[in-house]
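Q: Fold this one first, please.
A: Sequence and structure below.
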Amino acid sequence: MEKAQYAILRFAKYKGPEISNIEAHNERTKEKYASNPDVDSSRSRLNFHLVEPPGKYRAEAERQIAEAGCRTRKDSVRLVEAMITASPAFFKGKKRAEIKAFFEQALKFVEERQDKKTLISAVVHMDEKTPHMHLSFVPLTADGRLCAKEIVGNKKKLTLWQDDFWSAMVEKYPDLERGESASQTGREHIPPRVFKEMCRLNKQRERLG
């Protein structure tokens, strides 16, 4: 019996100094990844961008925020990162072009819900265990307010993002499934095995620096 295949979308919010660490990881600007054994640097040349960063993440975020005329506090969320992937079984046997098409579809989904001008970077990592995309954007609303809470919101809002993401991806990839609802698992549709994989990626973030 083949393993189930799941579409995965997770959000993380960042306020300040840690943004440079996230950038260093996403853009592979560090020379060594001794603290991160999950990165196979010999395969880093296979990574690719769907959105090229115009500059440093923090500087670009501050530029957009200033341009929108938003006031910020020290604890204001300046960057939201969406981590997009699927369970390992989904990518098994797929060629690079097929993997790229999956992430292009995912990017299109996000761009339909968040102004593409606020996107700073969308980079796909092929040098780790499971292909995944880090999509970073400034949480500016349609009417120009800096409000991550309104965009990625509470549990109800996150569940809606998950529902919509699965619906959008399953049109092109009918083999993709959705796990149990967040109200049942608290995991936003991620089954235990895949949730464990996401925890691994999240722990990897904690080792940044």
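Q: Good. Now the second chain.
A: Here it is, same layout.
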Amino acid sequence: PHYELTPSFYGCWDWHSAVHGHLAMLLGSQAMGWQAQVDWMVGRLDSDSLDQVFERLEHEPHFERPYGRAWLLYLMIALLDHEATTDRGSKAEALAADLAAWVKPHNLSRGGKDYQEPCFVLNALLHWYTARGADKELNFWHSRIEEQVLPNPAIMDQDSEQPGYFFSRWALQAVVIQKALGNTVLKQWVETHQMQPRPPITEYHSVHHMGINAARVWGLSTAYQATQDNRWLDQARAHIEAADALHTKWQGDRHAYSHWLPQFTVFAILGGPTTA
């Protein structure tokens, strides 16, 4: 879409991909030590255009809810360290409240299809609440995770099933457990349910499914941090290699690949879409 229709986030296949494109560039640049590029990105986002984005979300309550809005919250979390964005804290707080209202009716153990995965949204909320010191909200979600996710884990082998989604429900459950309850509880969860790392998926059922190996890395890397079992680390690396291997064949395909999958590979290398 053209700039006038979607200020700040435009020129990509869809709005949410433009949002997480900015996030991938910001986090990737920080990881590489490319300060000039970090400064350019922060300066681009610290503008009236970002205010217009928040105004649109307020006036169009169903627009990109929850998926694109969750990516925007991840981006705002990444910007917290930059003083230029602190005056938009109230806008981001309203965004977080809207996403929390969306998540609350959902059972975290059942998940949803790609754009409707509650643990993806919840992970952003947990990081936001932690950064803001929102203990009341954190305690609420900690209890929900204990009640719904710990006893009812997703099955990792579901990641290979048709029609093929880009999110691994198991991986998203692992990251919210680690963020909310810590590595000790995550280790217990892995061991109690006798979870074992799986090799990368090699048969893709859809263009969305090509993102599954990159997204799976988020859970594999957190499982390694919790267990210190090198098998999880080895598979995380294998999954990154599988995601990267798509590039040579698919780089010229804008619809299926170039507007989103390289960004997912960046998040895989970083261990997820956050700086924590």
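Q: Anything worth noting on the second one?
A: The radius of gyration is 18 Å.
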